[in-house]
Amino acid sequence: MLAVPVAMTVAAQEPSPPRAIAKLKDVRGNVLVSKPSGLAGGADGTPLFEGTRIVTTGHSGAIVAYGDGCEVPLGENQRYQVDSGKPCSVLVSQVQSLLPMPSPVVPVAGIAGVAGLAVPAAAASEGLFYLNTHQHDRIVSPS
Question: So what's the pLDDT on residue 15?
């Protein structure tokens, strides 16, 4: 009789399996989800646990849908780690880009107003440097 209560006590102390706190929704393209064995392809309805990492590749995306209604959209080339206990706005702000941010775009005087073009700041400064150093290399007609 003594063995039964001891067995019941041991069984009651076993940890319950982790519970999913979110799931993937509207998956398009190649979306990867971290698993204990490595990364695996994600699909609509894939359960997500605390700490699960999601990575999207080019031309892909998904939504991390939490049980409380919070939805975290992921676009292409982004990563996100499933978290809990934070406001939805904070969770959405935790999405990170996998690619470096492009340099700022500045309009080029004369061209931007006519053709509506813009160029990265680095290219604009290189072009101006070239013009300044080579302006005397060409003969220009005064007319």
Answer: 79
Same domain, 60 and 121: no
Answer yes or no: is 12 within a domain: no
Asked whether residue 116 is assigned to any structural domain, the reply reads yes
What tokens appear for 24 in the block?
């993937």
pTM above 0.70, yes or no: no
Residue 124 in any domain: the answer is yes
Of 68, 62, 98, 73, which Cα lies nearest the Cα of 85? 68
- Distance between CA atoms of residues 77 and 79, nearest Å: 7
Q: Are residues 123 and 58 in the same domain?
A: no
Condensed to tens digits (0 to 9), the pLDDT of residues 19-64 reads 999 999 999 999 999 998 999 999 999 999 999 999 999 999 999 9
Strands of 2-136, DSSP E:
22-28, 31-35, 38-41, 47-48, 53-56, 61-66, 71-74, 78-81, 96-97, 105-107, 118-120
Phi/psi for 92 (5° steps) reads -65, -35
Give the span between the Cα atoms of 143 and 129, in whole angstroms: 26
